[in-house]
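--- STAGE predict ---
source: upstream dedup step, 1 unique chain passed
mode: sequence only
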Amino acid sequence: NMIQSSHLTFLSLLLLSLCLLLTEHVGVTLAQSEKKLDMDPRLSRDHIVDNHNRRREQLKKLLADTKDKVADHESGRNLLEDEEYERLTNRIGLYEKKLQKMEGPMDEREIDKIMQRQKMRAERFGHTEL
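--- STAGE serialize ---
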């Protein structure tokens, strides 16, 4: 009976020690992950502004390509199906509206919101995809 009690005490202490070690390890791992997250270049202001400018240029190209397809159809050079013509015509307005919103420099509030959103997403889905 006394031996069982000693074994139980020993096992309890061993389990407690393991829990403490794991807690400390998880704390260190979380701190390291947060440090990696803070150092991630994809969360920098420059990266966000560069990405915005790159997307704006892609959208300009997409708008020009879409206008060319519509112009080719209207001139009879390359006829489109009615559905495709209507879809492309509608997209021109959407692309122009989006480009209008993206013109000019990004303001600091917008950059801060994007940085916060990306940081939250990285924390939620793990840091491996950053």
